Amino acid sequence: MSKQGSIADRIDRQLSFLLEADKLKSILRRSLITDGSRQENSAEHSWHLALAAMILQEYAAEPIVLAKAVRMVIVHDLVEIDAGDTFAYDTAGNVTKLDRECRAADRIFGLLPDDLRAEMRAVWEEFEAAQTPEARFAHAVDRLQPLLQNTKTQGGTWRLYKPSREQVLARMEPVRTALPRLWPVVIEAMDRFFGD
């Protein structure tokens, strides 16, 4: 293949991936946007997480490379294009979530040229493993964002789906460990919506 042909193929694969990624805009989450008028979509969620990571970086429990964390929050939900958004408190859905998301990662990241496929897959896997400072921080931001939406919508999904205080606190655990100075925000929300 000529150099020009390989460049054209690379561009075609990159643009195909970007068009596929646009489908994230049509994946609805259970969370309501803060005015309560509609459900948030996964692309909006990812954008808001990237902004939250930039704004809340100073509260990270350990030093992080912000660009790495931002990449994770932008990439981590792309698998929802195929796998759908699994609601945090959907016990049955969470049993099959990893398998569905791995298959989705294979297909979606597989649209990219090999080097970018490996790079984006590694970013997604790092987020999922939550073993690095950036991944722990990204997980914490990912958990804090719906909490903020729920507090602004008079309980939002908590009111609709009725998880217990213990379920929500367990879900918020990454905030306690990776954003400990923001843990009082979580406790205040728990006290307001679930009682002491």
What are its keywords?
2 strands; single chain; Hypothetical protein af1432; 196 residues; two-stranded antiparallel ribbon; 68% helix; mainly alpha; globular
Give a written overview of the molecule.
It is globular and about 65 Å long. The chain is mainly α and 196 residues long. It has a single domain (3-194), classed as Hypothetical protein af1432. The termini are far apart. The mean pLDDT is 95. Helix content is 68%, strand content 4%. Strands 1-2 form a two-stranded antiparallel sheet. The protein has helices at residues 3-21, 42-56, 66-75, 80-83, 91-109, 114-129, 133-152, 156-161, 165-171, 173-178, 183-194, and strands at 28-32, 39-41. Helix 3 crosses helix 7. A hairpin with a 6-residue loop joins strand 1 (28-32) and strand 2.
What would a concise description of this structure say?
With 196 residues, the protein is mainly α. It is built from eleven helices and two strands, in the order αββαααααααααα.
Number of helices: 11
Oligomer: single chain
The largest sheet has its strands arranged as 1-2
- Helix-and-strand structural type: mainly alpha
Strand and helix layout:
Elements: H1 3-21, E1 28-32, E2 39-41, H2 42-56, H3 66-75, H4 80-83, H5 91-109, H6 114-129, H7 133-152, H8 156-161, H9 165-171, H10 173-178, H11 183-194
Antiparallel strand pairs: 1-2
Helix pairs in contact: 2-3, 2-7, 3-6, 3-7, 6-7
